[in-house]
Design a protein that fits this description.
Layout: H1 4-12, H2 17-31, E1 35-45, E2 48-56, H3 59-66, H4 70-77, E3 82-83, H5 85-88, E4 94-98, E5 105-112, H6 120-146, H7 154-164, H8 169-176, H9 180-193, H10 199-209
């Protein structure tokens, strides 16, 4: 078993997506796993998830898992480690450990160990062990990807927040003591920055990303 402090240190040193993948390569080789990685589910719209894969995961495995929704549904509702075979009837040697939902993202750690077998105590033991590091791994991913996030300004956030409760541009202009044209300008910026098609779409994306919950 690798020293726990060494694993914590390696997670802290991750500073790129390449380093993120290298970390899982290290995990796979050090523990003699068949595959090891993380699947990130990113809620990009009200009913749409973008899925990202990192680490040492087989293409055939990813194709199989991605074609089904059982894993996503489980990770949306549970945080208990489980053998993938309990969800889709195959991959008994694959363990998944969900993070739970954080803002608009969730993830699950995936590892395949030929020694896993069908013994519940092994599943729980391995799941408990990797849960120690999973939050840090997930935060490392969030830290890396947040560098590319377009920031919404304080005034833009004020306008989209009022719009989210049904206020018109004119009403928002009266509340914030700015012109209606300026309100429309800020709302248009929100639409562009969130890659939305209209004001309602931008509101949904800001809610999902947590922007409306964190005033500047």
């Amino acid at each position: 078993m690798i020293n726990i402090n060494e694993l914590h240190s390696r997670i802290e040193l991750i500073n790129s997506i390449h380093g993120f993948n290298d970390f899982f390569k290290y995990i796979k080789n050090s523990y003699s796993y068949v595959q090891a990685g993380v699947i990130i589910f990113d809620l990009s719209d009200l009913f749409k998830f973008d899925t990202h894969y990192f680490g040492e995961l087989d293409d055939s495995f990813l194709s199989d898992v991605n074609s089904r929704k059982e894993l996503l549904h489980y990770c949306l509702n549970e945080t208990k480690a489980i053998q993938l075979s309990e969800l889709i009837g195959s991959y008994e040697s694959v363990l998944v450990v969900p993070t739970g939902v954080y803002k608009n993202k969730l993830a699950c750690f995936v590892l395949e160990s030929l020694s896993l077998g069908a013994e519940p105590h092994k599943v729980k033991m391995l799941g408990d062990y990797w849960r120690i590091f999973l939050v840090e791994i997930f935060e490392a991913y969030r830290r890396l990807t947040s560098l590319d996030v377009v920031k919404i300004t304080r005034r833009e956030k004020e306008c989209i927040r009022w719009a989210s409760i049904g206020k018109t541009s004119w009403e928002i202009s009266q509340i914030l003591d700015i012109s209606q044209r300026t309100v429309d300008f800020h709302l248009t910026n929100c639409i562009k920055k969130t890659n939305s098609t209209n004001r309602q779409h931008a509101i949904v994306k800001c809610i999902l990303s947590g922007e409306l919950l964190n005033p500047q």
